[in-house]
Amino acid sequence: MKNSFFFLALVLGTTAFAQTDTTHRKGGEWTKWDAAISLQAEAHHSTRKDALRNTANTYVVGTVQNKYVEIGGRYEHLTQPLPGHEAERGHGLAHLYAKVRRSGWGEITLGDFYEQLGSGIAFRAYEDRALGIDNAVRGGRIVIMPFRGLTLKGLAGQQRLHFDRNGKIFQSQRGYVGATDAEYRFEMSGQQFSLGATMVGWHEEQTPIKRFENGVLKRFRQPENHGIWAARLGYTGGKADVYFEHATKTANPNAANFYTLRSGQVQMLTFSYADRGWGVMLGARRSDNFDNHSLRTETGNDQRINHLPPFAPEQSYTLAALHPYATQPQSEWAWQAEGRYLLKRGTALGGRYGARLKVSAAYVNALDRATTSQEAYTHGRRPSYFGHGEKLFHDFTFEVSKKISASYSFTALYSHQDYNQRAIEGHADNGNHVKSHIFVYDGKHRLNKKITLRTELQYLHSKQADGNWLYGMAELSVAPYLVFSVSDQWNSSRSNRHYPMLSVAGTYKAHRLQLGVGKTREGINCSGGVCRLMPATEGAYLSYTLNF
Amino acid sequence: MKKTLFLFLLLLFTLSGRAQLPQITLKNIGGKEVNVSQLTTEGRPVIISFFATWCKPCLRELSAIHEVYEDWQAETGVKLVAVSIDEGATSLKVKPLAQSLDWQYEVLLDPNSDLKRALQVQLVPTVIVVDGKGHIVYRHSGYSEGSEEEIIAQVRKTLKR
Predict the structure, then answer these.
(1) Mutation target among A116, A147, A332, A453 for the B interface, most CBs of B within 10 A
(2) Is residue B12 one of the residues assigned to a domain?
(3) SS3 for chain B, per residue?
């Protein structure tokens, strides 16, 4: 902990010195260098007896570049990480790269890098600090644009797994991944088309696994090389958009599919149509045996090869996001629709200032048969294509936002959700399906030019899980620097527990400091369909970010 | 280790200039590619606003600016570029959102956070003001009602330089 604060003090001290040097250098494109540094520090002081007293996550990112060359790195200091981030313990230069590029021709990167091919169905390397995800590839990446419209990409290396390399360039016990991608884009009669193809391969040594074969214990021989191929098609007209992507993978026995030897696939089709004042989006996605990691024994968020974001609305309000859906890549048929409409000013329903309506629906089922442990080490059985199995989740949400006067506006939301807790979390409290009705009111009063009061009142009604919840929040913002907020989340029907929180956030230029005191409940924190269970906390929170 | 890091930071500072927009190409909601480093070639200031369809403060900020955007443009010639960090299929919800809210902004899609990372944006909403020469002159994270006044004040400052 001492180290964390020493490190923080060092960086802040240096910042004060650095900000005096902001003269712009003249010269050619080769000699015109830019440097940028950012800092993010999150600290927690716990008052719980069963938790570490002081914990902190600190990240410093630095880049230096000119038009043709870029060098960058990230130092992470997580010697005593925040609650829920224990697996990320460590410190060091976690990310380091050098890139050369020429605009319109391409680029070459050596070191650590991120990449998404297509929509990420076949391959995605990315970072999400809040969830502790960083599957950056360490190796080489090349992008070539041989002629207008065509982009070719190739990459190879090893994905990051927290600090397991212990100062070495690669961790020799783990596997390696490589990918190539081609995308061709063209325009016809003002409409944009794109065609793309991806191939991903990864290699991993055998894992010592034994199994019974005809009553004799034998070693299970696994394929060491795995592959995914994918193809995609995109169309963007003036108003309509269509996107389709298909991916298939070779047999990849792993812990997530009970070490079955059958191949997997995913298809996604989306359509949207939008015109001035309204828009709709419809989509379907089917995923069968498509949980891919470059580490065969991994079933969580580490070492993922690809990313399937949730095919459901991402809820923003606390209680509407209490039971968030996490993608089930092994077996899922997901459908969703979203529509938005602007009621114009001066109309009967729109009133003087107009109003906004949003309706969204998602319906997710498992495939008609799930892979079971009985199929381990076999080729398993394939589910039918259109067959729907048990319901995993549904969400129907209606939201209206309206400005009533120059100083008052509100948003009201109703959401009905059915969350299959047994299938998604592996356990259930008071019934497998948590069915909830959620009501949200969010009102905004502009008290004067500088001061605004926002209040939220939310109620979740359910007979399952923890039963009913109430949430209230008041937020006073003093533009442009300060935001004070006080909130309480109360379980009114079962535990009768309160989770109060008091916080103040200050923003000045590129500095942002937030201080909070209170309690958080154990719960699932999600981002982009990837979720993790965060432990209950109690105490003081500090968050500081800086860019310069 | 700390000594090395300290020296590394010192080196960065000695090189430190006024940061410019990076050489990154993103698609806009019309399906066309946009080179971010070319956003200010017309010599006009640009406001870059990072947002997501699920981020309420982001939408509040963009809606507040929408109310005064025409006045801002007439007065300063500023252009607002809204950059969505929505991932995967969620990025397909951005166009219906932008159209239904009648935004007149240029809307770019950054589904793997390439621009977000290059500009070292740590949270949304973050607003960056770029002067007509492509220099980043101001940035602000988080939104409090009325803070858009600070943004246009910074844009006006760039015109006086």
Answers:
(1) A116
(2) no
(3) CHHHHHHHHHHHHHHCCCCECCCCEEEECCCCEEEHHHCCCCCCCEEEEEECCCCHHHHHHHHHHHHHHHHHHHHHCCEEEEEECCCHHHHHHHHHHHHHCCCCCEEEECCCCHHHHHCCCCCCCEEEEECCCCEEEEEEECCCCCCHHHHHHHHHHHHHC
